[in-house]
């Protein structure tokens, strides 16, 4: 066994959609990648459709993080096989009963996008293992070309970091040749970003968004913009009065507003996942708001949660980023252990929210 190529991921997704057509649909995202590759997802559930209560799981945003796409494909395959057989699933001492699995499929839709950044995946596996971004062609003013936009700095939430953040406070770059953190020419400029936006637009029943990365290990929840506060609703990413103040750790000049009930629920679900991961082989994942890693602009988890605050006509989506494992590309035997941790956590998450989701 070894890491899947992008071609193998595509084949795997298509085969699952064919084999388990009673329990899942193939979702072809509207935008092909920069290099014109199809981007495919699966929608799992006994009942599927835009308005069904949905959890969105995304992997492969960062190309060099090889585990998440494989983990999500095997997660989908395990769930579908168990649903058809009417059994439960286990990973070490972490378990989902047959009854819980039935409830997940009966009350929820799980939209799983294993590899959001196909071009990056291929470039990382074939050319530069350290490649993180997509493969956009950035033409500099002097005519030179550099490649790649960091998809996870390209979303439309405080994207314009030079205006919105304090100087040097955020992990982002507007240099088209920055190897890791280039934010792109405008918010949501990249087709890979637009596809994730489309998932949230199309699946209007989405209540939870989980972006699977590596490797800290940790489970983060909103916000990544700044530390949290629940006293001053006006102190938020939409308020230009606070431009230039965001992203500084340890100050009280600016902190990002979060509704107390949301903060409590996000922390509860994050801890639930960390507890489930511990049952697999005893690994300890840190749980905190994303900002504890470093300040981020334009990240997908914050974008998912920001949509409702920017437009109350849009559903509220709680955002999470899992940073699985301890290395980007460990030996595959270790990668398989990490995949078991990811599956256990994501299954427990779904089982938990399925008990509160309206049928
Ligand atoms: Zn990442």
Automatic annotation (TrEMBL):
The keyword Chaperone does not apply. Its cofactor is Zn(2+). The active site is at 323 (proton donor/acceptor). Residues 2-350 form the Peptidase M14 domain. GO terms for cellular component: extracellular space. GO terms for biological process: proteolysis. Belongs to the peptidase M14 family. This is Zinc carboxypeptidase. It comes from Salipiger thiooxidans. The lineage of its organism: Bacteria, Pseudomonadati, Pseudomonadota, Alphaproteobacteria, Rhodobacterales.
């Amino acid at each position: 066994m070894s890491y899947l190529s992008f071609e193998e991921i595509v084949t795997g997704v298509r085969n699952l959609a064919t084999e388990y057509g009673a329990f899942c649909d193939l979702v072809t995202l509207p935008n092909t990648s920069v290099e014109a590759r199809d981007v495919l997802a699966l929608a799992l559930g006994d009942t599927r459709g835009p308005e069904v209560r949905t959890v969105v799981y995304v992997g492969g945003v960062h190309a060099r993080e090889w585990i998440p796409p494989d983990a999500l494909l095997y997660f989908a395959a395990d769930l579908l096989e168990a649903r058809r057989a009417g059994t439960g699933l286990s990973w070490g001492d972490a378990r989902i009963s047959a009854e819980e699995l039935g409830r997940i499929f009966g009350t929820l839709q799980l939209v799983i996008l294993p590899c959001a950044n196909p071009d990056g995946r291929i470039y990382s596996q074939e050319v530069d293992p350290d490649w993180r971004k997509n493969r956009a062609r950035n033409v500099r003013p002097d005519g030179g070309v550099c490649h790649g936009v960091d998809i996870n700095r390209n979303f439309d939430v405080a994207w314009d970091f030079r205006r919105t953040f304090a100087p040097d406070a955020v992990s982002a770059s507007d240099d088209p040749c920055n190897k890791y953190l280039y934010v792109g020419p405008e918010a949501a400029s990249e087709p890979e970003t637009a596809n994730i936006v489309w998932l949230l637009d199309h699946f209007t029943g989405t209540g939870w968004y989980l972006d699977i990365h590596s490797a800290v290990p940790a489970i983060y929840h909103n916000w990544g913009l700044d530390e949290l506060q629940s006293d001053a609703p006006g102190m938020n990413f939409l308020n230009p009065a606070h431009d230039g103040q965001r992203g500084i750790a340890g100050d009280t000049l600016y902190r990002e507003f979060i509704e107390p009930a949301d903060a409590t629920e996000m922390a509860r679900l994050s801890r639930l996942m960390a507890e489930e991961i511990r049952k697999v082989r005893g690994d300890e994942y840190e749980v905190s708001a994303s900002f504890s890693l470093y300040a981020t602009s334009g990240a997908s988890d914050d974008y998912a949660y920001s949509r409702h605050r920017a437009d109350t006509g849009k559903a509220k989506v709680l955002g999470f980023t899992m940073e699985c494992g301890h290395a980007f590309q460990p030996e595959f035997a270790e990668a398989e252990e990490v995949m078991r941790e990811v599956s256990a956590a994501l299954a427990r998450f779904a089982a938990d929210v399925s008990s509160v989701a309206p049928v």
